[in-house]
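Review form for a predicted model. The reviewer records the input and the model, then writes brief findings.
Reviewer: anonymous (R2)
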Amino acid sequence: MSETIDYAEMLEIPVNTLNVVKKKSRKKKNDELKDRVVDAVNERMTAYDEAIGDAKADVRPQEEEGEAGRIAYSEDVTEYVADPPAEEKPKKKFFEGKLLVVEFAAVLALCATILLTNIFMPNSAINTFFSNLTAGEPAAAQVDDRSYSELTLGSVVSDTSIECTVSDTGILTFTGECSVYAPYGGTVVNVAEQEGLYTIEIEHTTSFSSVISGLSSAYLAAGDTVYATIPVGYSTGDSEVSVSMYDGDSIIASYSVNEDNDIVWNA
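Model under review:
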């Protein structure tokens, strides 16, 4: 007996049915596929029976007559598998895209504004702000050691019709309703209040200072910067206002006022 027949006899596997699993498609050719598979199995089993011949009967005498034999029959056991649903790509939201565009445009506009202000307005507020952010240690404040006679002073009243007088001791006085100005710019050293009237002490340089008394209202506090063009207080005209100027600890008397109430140093 040949090796082919021995190997075939070792199988001893009867074939009665066959399950076919096929993915369902648009073209339905299941019947043709099933018939082709069944025919192919039957042809192989027929060839197998012819090859072993009588040897099969000797090895398997226990098979009863009328046994169906090794023939495969068609059975509709085809299982259909549905196509998996197509995976949908997430759609980008319309407003998210618009928001990114707006933010990008705002950044470009800000950069353009900074560039233009750097070119045409070097002293603008935005340039000052960014320069302060990037600046290192602040520079030491410049010391103003000028003498009072080197300074040009203005008027201490806002109304030229108010009469200002200067005493022999160097005290300037007036009575009237008006805004009150410092004779020169500087820094507020002290603000005091007594019986509803205010006194402001101002340092102009290291040696020059002034004291304004009798104000109905004080607009500044200690440490504030004083400008000659911005009022430091207000007088309702109910009481006299006096202005005294000092060179160190000595009161200054060598000055007068002109027709516009501007302070003028005596030659």
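Findings: Residues 94-120 form the longest helix (27 residues).
Further findings: Helices lie at 3-11, 30-52, 54-59, 94-120, 125-134.
Recommendation: see findings above.
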